[in-house]
From TrEMBL:
InterPro entries: Cytidylate_kin, Cytidylate_kinase_dom, P-loop_NTPase. Residues 6-217 form the Cytidylate kinase domain. It comes from Microcella humidisoli. The gene is cmk. ATP binds at residues 10-18. This is Cytidylate kinase.
């Protein structure tokens, strides 16, 4: 088990994945992207023709979910049933249904148990785990807990820059709609007691990575 667990939550586009991964790389820590697991299950449901609005059907898929994720920041991959689906989980069709899959209680319970097992098995000196409910549900006892925020305008600008082919307006709408759906299930907009808020609105990527590393060094 890693000595230092760092929990990072935040809304879409706050920089959780990219910043956590780079901070983990520099610290020599493992890195766990929990959103990737929710996306992989959503991808699997689409692949199997499961009606994602049918909670019972989705819940049935969790027990036998054959999922593997790379936790080395430099060797990141996602596999389902042995098939590498790393790029596929970012497809818009997956993004469009992931919130429906993530709100099923059996999905949350099953994946939370999986994340705790992966955290316990990590052999690096520390692990950075990022998602929506890591500071509150998955690892509330983590040595370091951070809520990474950014203004809606900054988050939308970052996402639009990544998806240049898609109109800024469509990106903004999708982001707002997903955050609204996800917020009904877990609160990742307000820091829970003892959680440090890192506002990246006016920070570039490099300064955000540095700020997270400083928080880890101060808190661990
Ligand atoms: O990177 P982005 O913010 O777009 O999303 P993500 O971290 O890949 O998460 C994808 C989806 O998984 C979210 O929209 C949530 O529906 C769900 N999720 C969750 O419910 N709990 C987590 N700990 C992580 C992700
Ligand atoms: O995982 P999450 O949805 O929170 O965000 P991300 O996918 O890690 O970051 C979205 C984009 O914002 C990436 O291209 C980052 O490089 C960028 N970013 C930025 O421009 N400035 C920051 N301070 C943090 C991230």
């Amino acid at each position: 088990m890693s000595d230092i667990v760092v929990a990072v939550d935040g809304p879409a586009g706050s920089g959780k994945s990219s910043v956590s991964r780079e901070a983990a790389r520099r610290l020599g820590f493992a890195y766990l992207d929990t959103g990737a697991a929710y996306r992989a299950l959503a991808w699997h449901c689409l692949d199997e023709g499961v009606d994602v609005e049918d909670a019972t059907e989705v819940a049935e898929r969790v027990a036998a979910f054959d999922y593997a994720i790379g936790m080395q920041p430099d060797h990141y991959f996602v596999r389902v049933g042995g098939e590498d689906i790393t790029p596929d989980i970012r497809e818009p069709r997956v993004t469009a249904v992931v919130s429906a899959v993530a709100r099923v209680p059996e999905v949350r319970a099953g994946l939370t148990a999986l994340f705790r097992r992966l955290i316990a098995e990590a052999s690096e000196p520390g692990v950075i785990v990022e998602g929506r409910d890591i500071t509150t549900v998955v690892a509330p006892d983590a040595a370091v807990r951070v809520l990474l925020t950014a203004s809606p305008e900054a988050r939308m600008a970052r996402r639009s820059a990544e998806l240049s082919a898609v109109s800024a307006e469509a990106t903004a709408q999708q982001l707002a709609s997903r955050d609204a759906q996800d917020s009904r299930v877990v609160d990742f907009m307000n820091a829970a007691d003892g959680v440090t808020t890192l506002d990246s609105t006016d920070l570039d990527f490099e300064h955000t990575v540095q700020a997270l590393i400083d928080i880890v060094r101060a808190g661990a």
